[in-house]
Amino acid sequence: MKKLVVVGLMLASGVWGWAQSAGSTAATPLEATAQDGYESARSLELYREGHASMLMNDFGQLARYHDADVQLGPPAAGEQRVVFFGDSITDIWKLDESFPGKHYVNRGIGGQTTPQMLVRFRPDVIDLHPAVVVVLAGTNDIAGNTGEETLEQIEDDYATMAELARVHGIRMVFASVMPINDYNPSALRFFLQRSPAKILALNEWLKKYCADNGLVYLDYFSAMVDGNGMLKSELTADGLHPNAAGFAVMAPLAEAAILKAGSKE
To answer: Is the pTM for the entire model greater than 0.70?
Structure first.
């Protein structure tokens, strides 16, 4: 019975039709897809249960970088500090390898959503006095890591971050939400939690918001998507997180966006 319910939810959400049109292995057989959907929903439930204490006691995970923020101190004279702010994709990025010699600070936390990032935006961004902040977020909001959210709610969180940065003289770069894929069993779980249609819609909003407000839009999506609308298989192992090859694609795009943001009046 649970399997039939999951299939109905997938049909209603549009995931089923998208998977069929993209040639996804998730579309067949019917019974296997239902089981995959059930396991994906269960994995999200387990994530929330496993992080219940954090979500109740330190929702923004302010403790994660507290000591590092204190030790970092203000930028030195002439230092063009950049904060990379985001979720696990940022968290696992070895910035010192991708940007040797740069004053680039990693403030990513795996699993986070934009409401959590708003909670820590002051200590982990504003109080570090960067010249530029690069925000990569949204995928976990779409997955529902901290509860269901509408696109409008996610967009409001982005806009609030941009407004806070503007008040404090920080140049904003908004990165696109990354594409995903379902090309192996470990990837399928992430894929079923993240609506490709919502990823596309959120990226369209981000691009327009940046254009309308003089911000820089960093388009990772176009550089990393394949002909099926999926994250290129050679750029990831699990369908969501970039591997070394993926970060090698992202790094020059990020550097160009940072330079562009720094040049804006």
So the answer is: yes
